Amino acid sequence: MNLKFVVNDYVLVWNILFQASISERVQALKQKIWLNYKKQYNDTFQDNALILRDPKNFIPDDDTIYNIVMENDSYLRIKKNTEKFRVELLKTWDEYKKVAIPCLKDILRVDIKPYHVLIVDSKLDVVDKTLPKGRKVNTIVWGRHYDDATKTLVELIYEIVRKEMKNYQEDYKEIVQAVIELAILNEFHTRISKTSHYLTGDPSLKYLKRQIYPYWLMYLGATKEEMLNYMMRDKIAFDIDKYTFEKQLKKVNLCTFIDFCIKNQKYIVKINELEII
């Protein structure tokens, strides 16, 4: 996986128009456009999927609304802030990518093609993982900021992986989601920050994740002797002797591991037997 950070005018304008207003001036601009160009405003709403199919070459059928916004002083300030945000993200990625790329390859064991991260103002607090009809495109709209730069990077990659696996094993979404959290929010974040993050994530998934955890360690290639160190690191305990050691898991990729969890879920999900340090 590699990431390219881009500011695209059409993506930025669309999100300014159709996400929550980030200032009174922006709200006033949107109301003015709505009062004078209702049809064009409504038509522009339909552009999002078209833009995301090919942002670089997108040309609107009617650019009236886009031109009005782009010529406004508020937009110029927003774009300046967005460019600054893009530079911050790029610096973070440049700092971590030598560690992050091989780490992700080791954890996921599947190839993810380079992604275009379409940056919008962080005040919008938006993540758009729209899957346009037609050819698959490796784009994600990102407008979310965390005080910890490492967490920002982890959350971005987490959303990319979620998008990549959006339609995988749809009948077992909780298991898919739990494994993705284990992979990115927990193990990946732990490796690049050198501090365990295994007790973070969606609270509704914590028991499922803890039940999968022993098999997850097998997937990571931990020996029985090494599992104790992992348990101490992550503050999750289990009786190793109660589990069949699945040696083959260290050789499969993330999707196959998910399939294993689904196939064996009646043996894996035994919440009452779990003990937390």
Outline of the structure:
With 277 residues, the chain is of the alpha/beta class.
Q: What keywords describe this structure?
A:
single chain; 277 residues; alpha/beta; 12 helices; 57% helix; 6% strand
Characterization of this structure:
The protein has helices at 9-18, 24-36, 38-45, 48-53, 64-70, 73-108, 149-164, 173-193, 206-220, 224-234, 254-263, 265-268; strands spanning 3-6, 115-119, 126-128, 139-143. The protein is α/β, with parallel strands linked by helices. It has a four-stranded mixed β-sheet, covered by helices on one side. It is elongated. The protein starts with a strand and ends in a 9-residue tail after the last helix. The mean pLDDT is 92.
Number of helices: 12
Please report which band the strand proportion falls in: under 5%, 5-15%, 15-25%, 25-35%, 35-45% or over 45%: 5-15%
Radius of gyration: 22 Å
Helical fraction equals 55-70%
Mean pLDDT, as a whole number? 92
Order of helices and strands: EHHHHHHEEEHHHHHH
Structural class comes to: alpha/beta
N- to C-terminal distance? 35 Å
Strands, count: 4
Low-confidence stretches: none
Main sheet specs: 4 strands, mixed
Set out the fold topology.
Layout: E1 3-6, H1 9-18, H2 24-36, H3 38-45, H4 48-53, H5 64-70, H6 73-108, E2 115-119, E3 126-128, E4 139-143, H7 149-164, H8 173-193, H9 206-220, H10 224-234, H11 254-263, H12 265-268
Parallel strand pairs: 1-2, 2-4
Antiparallel strand pairs: 3-4
